[in-house]
Every structure is written in C-alpha cells, then in structure tokens.
C-alpha cells in the first residue's frame, strides 16, 4: 500500500486503501495527471474530454 490518498466516488470518502472499507467498491486517485509540455497524446486526451 502506498501513502497516497484515494477517493471513493460512491460514498464520497477519502481513504488510503485500494478498496473502500464502507461500500467495498474500488477507489480512485483524486489527483489530476501530471502535465508535461512534451506530451505526445495530450491533444487526443483533450478531444475525448
């Protein structure tokens, strides 16, 4: 387990585990992806959003 905080979108709680202890659903990272000016796929990622 890493020391990164994670977020459960189902019950909107923060935790350190990969699985939410309240509802049992997988958690996600609340941090945005890192920005790089040399990102080859940035144009495609912005078109999808």
Which of globular, elongated, flat, extended, rod-shaped describes the shape? Answer: elongated
What is the third-level CATH name, the topology? Rubrerythrin, domain 2
Using DSSP, what is the number of strands? Answer: 2
Annotated CATH architecture: Single Sheet
Number of helix segments? 1
CATH class: Mainly Beta
Low-confidence stretches: none
The CATH superfamily is H/ACA ribonucleoprotein complex, subunit Nop10
Largest sheet: 2 strands, antiparallel
The helix/strand order is: EEH
Topology:
Layout: E1 6-8, E2 13-15, H1 42-48
Antiparallel strand pairs: 1-2
Describe the structure in your own words:
With 49 residues, the protein is of the alpha+beta class. The protein has one domain (1-49): H/ACA ribonucleoprotein complex, subunit Nop10 (Rubrerythrin, domain 2), CATH 2.20.28.40. The chain is 14% helix and 12% strand. The protein has one helix and two strands. It has one helix at 42-48; strands at residues 6-8, 13-15. It has a two-stranded antiparallel ribbon. The longest helix has 7 residues, at 42-48. It is elongated and about 40 Å long.
Key structural traits:
49 residues; single chain; Rubrerythrin, domain 2; 1 helix; 2 strands; alpha+beta
Short description:
By secondary structure, the chain is of the alpha+beta class. The protein has one helix at residues 42-48; strands at 6-8, 13-15.
């Amino acid at each position: 387990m890493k020391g990164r905080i994670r977020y459960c979108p189902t019950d909107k709680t923060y935790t350190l585990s990969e699985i939410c202890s309240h509802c049992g659903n997988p958690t996600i990272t609340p941090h945005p992806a890192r920005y790089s000016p040399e990102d080859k796929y940035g144009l495609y990622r912005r078109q999808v959003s």
